[in-house]
Design goal:
Layout lengths: L2 H20 L5 H10 L2 H12 L16 H14 L3 H25 L23 H15 L3 H23 L5 H7 L4
Helix pairs in contact: 1-5, 1-7, 2-5, 4-5
């Protein structure tokens, strides 16, 4: 799953959880925590595989149902205990939605299946030659382009486009949380 897909799935889940659990829309801070949390598993595991060759497929401790997910839930519990329940929810929803999205993607598209990789450290992938972050990302972009040549690839692209458009509509409906602080980063006081 590409970064924008993880962000979209996470945002839809966060908006639903915050609306149901808090009776409100996501705050700016929660949206920013979510944005980081939805990318964090890849920011840890992909460099370990693609740059340093410590994993074979970019799925390790940070994607682990046995390590990464419990760690994310612990962070959420600490944030909640310190008086930041919405930020805790955003961290947990972002992180867990990333792993679940990758699990679904792996179940549908991995050849050979890489599902056991999500059980690190019980199952770990052997070290592999590291192609480099740039080279591996470029290869994945080319693979995605090739995937569009088949029916399943076009269906995936259509579903992802619908997800992104629907998420953008929800984000606007929620008042564009997270945008104002990001926009203000570039402004002088």
């Amino acid at each position: 799953m590409w970064p924008w897909g993880h962000l979209a799935v996470g945002y839809v889940a966060l908006s639903a959880v915050v609306r149901i659990g808090f009776g409100d829309r996501p705050s700016d801070r929660a949206a920013l925590v979510l944005a980081v949390a939805t990318q964090l598993p890849d920011l840890v595991d992909k460099p370990l595989a693609w740059q340093f060759g410590l994993l074979s497929n970019g799925i390790g401790a940070a994607h682990s149902l046995l390590v990464g997910v419990p760690a994310a839930l612990a962070v959420a519990a600490v944030l909640r205990a310190r008086g930041y329940p919405e930020l805790g929810v955003a961290a947990a929803v972002g992180y867990v939605s990333h792993v679940l999205g990758d699990l679904l993607f792996a179940a549908l598209f991995s050849r050979p299946p890489i599902l056991p990789s999500f059980l690190w450290p019980v199952y770990s992938t052997p070290a592999a030659p590291a192609p480099g972050l740039g080279a591996k990302t470029w290869q994945l972009l080319l693979d995605s382009r090739a995937l569009l040549g088949g029916g399943m690839g076009r269906t995936y692209f259509l579903l992802e486009a619908l997800l992104l458009c629907g998420t953008a509509a929800l984000w606007f409906l929620d008042g564009t949380p997270g945008w104002k602080p990001v926009r203000n980063l570039g402004r002088a006081d």
